[in-house]
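User: Predict the structure for this protein chain, please.
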Amino acid sequence: MSLRILKWPMKVVDVQSVKIPVFARILTVQTQNDLPQLWVLCDESEDVERRTFVTYGTGRRMSEDPGEYVGTYQMLGGSLVYHVFEKR
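Assistant: Here is the predicted structure, written as structure tokens:
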């Protein structure tokens, strides 16, 4: 097993799925060069699966069970703030 921290680009959309290794551990979501990125600790040799992420802007209505909190990122100098949850 060879663990590495890798990143995947995220879209600024309400719901998206990302193909990452099955046992990947989500570390954080933040912006890099003003684009959202998802960082995970994983073994690249593992099988991959689609995992679903839901993004809510500050002040928006949320599901009663939004999922597990992943992180918050800001765009446009902090004028847009988004909060990401993983739905399992």
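The longest strand covers residues 48-57.
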